[in-house]
Write a structure and sequence with these properties.
Strand content of chain B: 15-25%
Largest sheet of chain B: 6 strands, mixed
CATH topology of the largest domain in chain B: Rossmann fold
Order of helices and strands of chain A: HEHEHHEHHEHEEHEHEHEHH
Largest sheet of chain A: 9 strands, parallel
Number of helices of chain B: 16
Distance between the termini of chain A: 24 Å
Oligomer: heterodimer
Number of domains of chain A: 1
Bound molecules: pyridoxal-5'-phosphate
Structural class of chain B: alpha/beta
Number of strands of chain A: 9
Strand content of chain A: 5-15%
CATH class of the largest domain in chain B: Alpha Beta
Number of domains of chain B: 2
Shape of chain B: globular
Strand order of the largest sheet of chain A: 5-4-3-2-1-9-8-7-6
Order of helices and strands of chain B: EEHHEHEHEHEHHEHEHHEHEHEEHEHHEH
Largest interface: A-B, 44 and 37 residues
Structural class of chain A: alpha/beta
Strand order of the largest sheet of chain B: 3-4-14-9-10-13
Amino acid sequence: MTTRIDTRFAELKKQGRSAFVTYVMAGDPDPATSLEIVKALPKAGSDVIELGIPFTDPMADGPSIQAAGLRALKAGMTLKKTLDVVRDFRKDDNATPLVLMGYYNPIYIYGVDKFLADAKSSGVDGLIVVDLPPEEDDELCIPALKAGLNFIRLATPTTDDKRLPAVLTNTSGFVYYVSIAGITGAAAADANVVGEAVARIKRHTGLPICVGFGIRTPEAARAIAEKADGSVVGTALVDALKNSLDAEGRATAKTVNAVAELTAALAQGVRAAKQAAG
Amino acid sequence: MTIAKPNSYRSGPDERGHFGIFGGRFVAETLMPLILDLEKAYTAAKADPAFHVEMNGYLKNYVGRPSPLYFAERLTEHLGGAKIYLKREELNHTGSHKVNNVLGQIMLARRMGKKRIIAETGAGQHGVATATLCARFGLECVVYMGAVDVERQQPNVIRMEMLGATVHPVQSGTRTLKDAMNEALRDWVTNVHNTFYCIGTVAGPHPYPTLVRDFQSIIGNETKAQMQEVEGRLPDSLVACIGGGSNAMGLFHPFLDDPSVEIFGVEAAGHGLTQLHAASIAGGRPGVLHGNRTYLLMDADGQIQDAHSISAGLDYPGIGPEHSWLHDVGRVNYLSATDDEALAAFQLLSKLEGIIPALEPAHAIAKVMELAPKRPKDHLMVVNLSGRGDKDVPQVGDILKGKSK
Ligand SMILES: Cc1ncc(COP(=O)(O)O)c(C=O)c1O
């Protein structure tokens, strides 16, 4: 089985370029604007899209992404509408990989089998579910793989060599290396330290390794791009979106552009990187 | 749901932390290695006689155990039915049952070499117990408490600060216990290398529900022995309030395989079950939050709903996973009491017995007021008086004067 994720990373490898992965929250600040933002991302240089599923209790997220989720929920966003965003996006873009990222409860309540079928038919390529470690693989990971979706696992600084094989066993698509022990929006890790961690994980897997948490600027994205197969930016984009809203938290004429412009600047940083190692 | 009766109600969880479909380890990867370490440390401690000797020493001389099993004569006369005994957990050092569990977890943290302790707290009783033992053992203590709870449980905030803890008012979400737990988990993910998360109830990822239950089971074990001594037999029923369910589980667990013992857990019905409340079994369904699968209050999209209770310690949209299982298999009966019923019980116990209960166990007393009159005079009923009401005196005083709601 080859997914859009596999195809995209294979292309980038041929080009000798590291991937630029963007995260935005589905439904932030409202479902219609959110769709426009998602559509704008590939045009601005995003190679892979991570779309957040809003949840009331995001235990691994910092204040920016917490607030983004609450804005989306307030605007009436649901998991079903999140899948609608993906379906609408796919009408004009059949190449950019799209990964849903979130927490397990909304998926569990939607119903795992129904969710996987609907996600697949909407054009979702992979899932990142923060609160499903390998110990809970029977819940969603194994069924997702059977349904033809990638299940992308997080590896962290606390995932030591002994544990890495367990984390990597049912991982597909790419590995998401969380560069710090912490929540989204926290301080960045040093690129050299990240480089060592990526090299360590590479000894255990042939999958691409993307690095996220704490990357906010084109310079930082470039530094990470030189060490890894991809860099993920989320909080900085969510902050740019938030700063474009009016006093009531509603979208303005500037909102889509605010996200697109930062995406373009970050994408340039990534493209300026010297070829990634390995 | 009906499920085949197990041979024993006391054999859970399985090796992956499941009680039937409930429990589990739904946490971020960053925490997983630490949770596995904790499980190992706990297994080793349990098998180490020195651990128990040390625990028992502090339980006796620092906490003041055993807590009395007291015959509430005037309450019994007033209600005119079952003979009511109060398990006096409110007499423990720090004023509630929470200290039993905190002592155990602090002993574990010491064995694991952790120097920084974090905790979430609702009513502040768990926070006070944690701050107390951190002071005793010279450990750094950081407590997360919803901003709403900081407001309504001021006396406990002051106590924690006097004990040297740092209290962080949590402004996110509903600003109550659920959000305090989110914030504690965020701290833990950030500081895993030196931090021990001291969870205050029988919830969270495996092994927490089990180890908290084990540390709290001293309540039920003592009750069994004390009842044997005064009445020469088992009690006929047990009643306890439920926030996450630790005081209840501590009382219930040793009796689960005694079929003659009726068991009642009391959730907080807030303004009533058709309005805002905190009764996750009565009004919720199975979902995943804070590391475990359990009954939760949520909407059709799986978004967690606001809970409400007059009692900060019960104001939580979930319940420990073992309770969810005991409900599904039908061993424990889960009831609920409203804010108003709890307030009436708070006043009744104060006036009849000279014991001001915390608002949390006032919910249990409220159901005793219904259950006891329907039972014969030789029926032995034990209520867990999980904490004292000092912390609630300002809040209840205001409500009774009509100043706040
Ligand atoms: C006195 C008292 N009882 C009960 C509770 C509820 O917790 P649990 O259900 O874990 O016993 C609390 C929590 O703050 C409490 O302070």
